[in-house]
Amino acid sequence: MIKEPLHVWGCGTARTLRVHWAMFALNLPYISHPIVTRSADMEDKNFLAVSPGKKIPALSHGELNLTESAAIIEYLFHLAGKHSNTIENMTEINRWSYFTLMEIDATALYVLRRHQDLSAIYGEAPKACEAARNYFYRQIKVLDKFLGHQKPFVVGDQLSKLDIILGSCCLWAQSINLELPCNVERWFTNIQLLKSFESGLRANAE
Ligand SMILES: N[C@@H](CCC(=O)N[C@@H](CS)C(=O)NCC(=O)O)C(=O)O
Predict the structure, then answer these.
(1) Mean pLDDT by 10 residues, the chain (206 residues)
(2) What span, in angstroms and rounded, lies between the C-alpha atoms of 143 and 191?
(3) Three-class SS of residue 20?
(4) Which of 64, 82, 100 marks a domain boundary?
(5) pLDDT value at position 146?
(6) Order of strands across the sheet with 58-61?
(7) What is the distance in angstroms between the CA of the first residue and the CA of the last residue of the chain?
(8) Is there a single domain that holds both residue 74 and residue 148?
(9) In which region does residue 161 sit, left (phi positive, over 0), alpha (psi from -120 to 50) or beta (all else)?
(10) Number of domains in the chain
(11) Are residues 22 and 122 in the same domain?
(12) Nearest-CA neighbor of 109 among 14, 187, 17?
């Protein structure tokens, strides 16, 4: 039983969806503050107290204020008692989570986001976009090989933060018309995270 209420700040981006998705998958009740990025919402003093750098998502829980989507969902898995219990699984989950955050999110997808959708702020950079697209395909193939056939979860026998981090990147990639290699696509479809995710979104919107 979790005594203090969980507050989630932010909505509407791949990173914020990780947190809503984890809340839903772990069946954790929470209060949503639908702060939208780069809007006047970000000046809300309660939000700034939780996220002084004006970044979403953020979580507040009792005395704890937390930013960074991966750190937040790791906290939630611990809170729900669903974290990995072997050092081997934990190490593999961390390895591929860091890989996905750095090589797929930050170095490929976010470069495209900055120089396509947000080019008014960060500038046009067609060469950087082309390189980011190629980089995405090169790195997602590495994951595709690791994943192989017929795995319900990327690592271990239960949903982990890694499935949510990679799943959010797969949705993000598909939304900008990047193709997923076949093992990743099969995993993404089979895991039915999408189903949980959509239900989570519905619950969040209610
Ligand atoms: N590494 C952070 C990235 C957070 C982030 O950049 N969030 C974006 C929205 S997806 C944001 O708040 N942007 C506002 C800004 O950069 O001014 C995480 O995974 O939580």
Answers:
(1) 92 96 94 95 96 97 98 97 92 98 98 97 98 98 93 91 96 96 93 61 50
(2) 16
(3) helix
(4) 82
(5) 96
(6) 31-33, 6-9, 58-61, 64-67
(7) 23
(8) no
(9) alpha
(10) 2
(11) no
(12) 14
pLDDT of residue 206: 45
Instruction: Say what the pTM is.
Output: 0.93
* CB 10, CB 46: distance < 8 Å: no
Q: For residue 69, which atom of ligand 1 is closest to its CA?
A: 20
Give the pLDDT of residue 2: 82
| Structure confidence at residue 197 (pLDDT) | 60
Kindly state whether residue 155 falls inside one of the protein's structural domains: yes
Q: 32 by DSSP, 3-state: which?
A: strand
List the one residue out of 86, 80, 107, 88 whose CA is nearest residue 164. 80
For residue 146, give the H/E element and its range: helix 126-147
Residue 205: predicted pLDDT: 47
Pairing of strands 31-33, 6-9: parallel
| Pocket-testing residue among 8, 9, 11, 37, ligand 1, by greatest number of atoms within 8 A of Cβ | 37
Helices (H), 14-103: 14-25, 45-50, 69-79, 87-99
- Taking the centre of ligand 1 as the mean of its atom positions, its distance from the CA of residue 55, in whole angstroms, is 5
Structural tokens at position 65: 């204020």
Tokens 């970000």 belong to residue: 42
Same domain, 75 and 92: no
Closest atom of ligand 1 relative to the 13 alpha carbon: 10
